Amino acid sequence: MNAPQHASNDKQNDNDDSPQHAALPLHWHRHRLTLAFPIVLTNLTQPILGTVDTAVAGHLDGPQYLGGVALGGLVFNFVFWGFGFLRMGTTGLVAQAYGARDPAALRASLLRAR
Known about the structure:
- The protein starts with a helix and ends with a helix.
- Among the domains are: about 40-80; about 85-114, no CATH class.
- By secondary structure, the protein is mostly helical.
- The protein contains five helices and no strands.
- The model is unreliable at about 1-15 (pLDDT under 50).
């Protein structure tokens, strides 16, 4: 009879309202979404740029305009994603400095990224 009570106590401890099991407050989620939204928007709109350029160039007089847009889009994507390592590489450093509330480290990360 002690074993089932012990098992029920374990389940009770898993579902208690301790800080480890408490739900995160709504303002925490809003703050994270405020930080993440511009990044998500940028990643979503970058491919749309080439599509809009192609649609506009498709209405022009000759095929050379469409070829120019295709070549320009290729170069833009190469540069955008080629230098993506700067964005991806500094994200962790900036997040650590922001979390530690260290403005000097934030400035240093900005200067390194330039």
